[in-house]
């Protein structure tokens, strides 16, 4: 019976004899193909453990999905030295001076505390400060110690406390009970701490730094506390407000750090803020003789750590 009139007409035979013969041939071929495929797969699975092994070692690679939560940090390098100065509120003399380095090559902070009674070429630090402020100290110390000091930052006691409190508190392990009152007239300070971990505010930090340097003359403890303060306060949370905190920093003290310097070093600040708990700390010990002159060994140590 013909169903269509055009080329490719389909015919249905009147008898099923020829059709059944063709069907048997097709069934035999289908069974052969299935059996061959099964045998081939069994053979291949026994010989090769994976598709990569079949195509050849190293020719097939699997790409794992990247961890979207992994923090990608910018590359940073170089070393930057800072001089941190804290004075009385009348700006008549410094309470303490801290040399601080941000080592971007090794992701490290280095600190060296200097005596506020230090004498440089027969001239006291206090006299140098009275003549030219923090900028004068920056220049004289760089020449005397033989290492470049890129920037200085100068705070009064009150402005240091106000600025530091905006950054938050730090945890510091006090090694023994401290009960002390010192200073004179309008420049008095008091410390009252028990042994053990203490949460320090801005006022606590500056009082302890002053106590270690002025009273104890323990410059190692002083620089160690400065290192803890820097790593504790420069963190990822504060980086979120970096612009506003920098504006506050500029208003809080005197410095030669400019807005351009800040913008140029934002990658470095970001890395140090994100890696605050992984940064290596170097406490550079300083010593002074009976005339308040820094010893040659201490000068050599500072050069070794703060040279670029």
Q: Which structural class do you get from the secondary structure elements?
A: alpha+beta
The oligomeric state of the chains shown is single chain
Helix content: 40-55%
Sum up the overall morphology in one term. elongated
Biggest sheet: strands side by side, in what order? Answer: 11-6-1-2-3-12
Write down the overall mean pLDDT: 87
How many extended strands? 12
Q: Report how far apart the termini are.
A: 100 Å
Summarize the main sheet: 6 strands, mixed
Task: For the structure shown, list the relevant keywords.
308 residues; alpha+beta; six-stranded mixed sheet; two-stranded antiparallel sheet; 12 strands; elongated; disordered N terminus
Short note summarizing the structure:
The chain is an alpha+beta fold and 308 residues long. It has helices at residues 17-47, 51-55, 125-145, 157-167, 202-216, 219-233, 236-239, 242-252, 259-264, 266-274, 296-306; strands at 79-87, 94-103, 108-114, 119-120, 123-124, 151-156, 170-174, 178-182, 189-193, 196-200, 254-255, 280-283. Strand 1 and strand 2 form a beta hairpin.
Protein architecture, described:
- It is a single chain.
- The chain is α+β, with helices and mostly antiparallel strands and 308 residues long.
- The protein is 45% helix and 20% strand.
- The chain has 11 helices and 12 strands.
- The strands form 4 sheets. Strands 11-6-1-2-3-12 form a 6-stranded mixed beta sheet, with helices on both faces.
- Helix 4 (157-167) crosses helix 5 (202-216) and helix 4 packs antiparallel against helix 8 (242-252).
- The longest helix is centred in the first third of the chain and has 31 residues, at 17-47.
- It is elongated.
């Amino acid at each position: 019976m013909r169903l269509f009139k055009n080329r490719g007409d389909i015919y249905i035979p009147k008898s099923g004899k020829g059709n059944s013969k063709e069907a048997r041939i097709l069934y035999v071929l289908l069974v052969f193909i299935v059996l061959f495929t099964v045998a081939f797969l069994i053979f291949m699975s026994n010989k090769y453990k994976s598709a990569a092994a079949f195509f050849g070692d190293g020719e097939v690679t699997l790409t794992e999905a990247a961890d979207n939560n992994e923090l990608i940090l910018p590359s940073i390098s170089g070393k930057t030295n800072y001089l941190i100065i804290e004075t009385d509120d009348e700006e008549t003399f410094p309470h303490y001076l801290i040399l601080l380095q941000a080592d971007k090559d090794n992701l490290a902070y280095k600190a060296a505390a200097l005596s506020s009674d230090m004498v440089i070429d027969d001239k006291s630090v206090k006299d140098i400060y009275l003549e030219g402020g923090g900028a004068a100290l920056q220049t004289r110390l760089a020449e005397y110690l033989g290492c470049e000091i890129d920037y200085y930052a100068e705070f009064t006691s009150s402005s240091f406390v106000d600025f530091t409190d905006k950054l938050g508190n730090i945890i510091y392990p006090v090694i023994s009970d401290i009960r002390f009152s010192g200073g004179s007239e309008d420049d008095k300070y008091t410390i009252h701490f028990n042994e053990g971990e203490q949460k320090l505010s801005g006022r606590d930090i500056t009082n302890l730094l002053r106590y270690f340097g002025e009273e104890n003359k323990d410059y190692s403890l002083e620089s160690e506390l400065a290192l803890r303060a820097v790593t504790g306060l420069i963190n990822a949370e504060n980086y979120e407000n970096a612009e506003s905190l920098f504006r506050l920093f500029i208003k809080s003290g005197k410095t030669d750090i400019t807005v351009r310097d800040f913008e140029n070093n934002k990658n470095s600040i970001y890395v140090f803020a994100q890696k605050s708990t992984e940064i290596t700390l170097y406490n550079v010990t300083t010593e002074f003789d009976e005339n308040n002159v820094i010893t040659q060994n201490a000068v050599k140590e500072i050069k070794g750590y703060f040279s670029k």
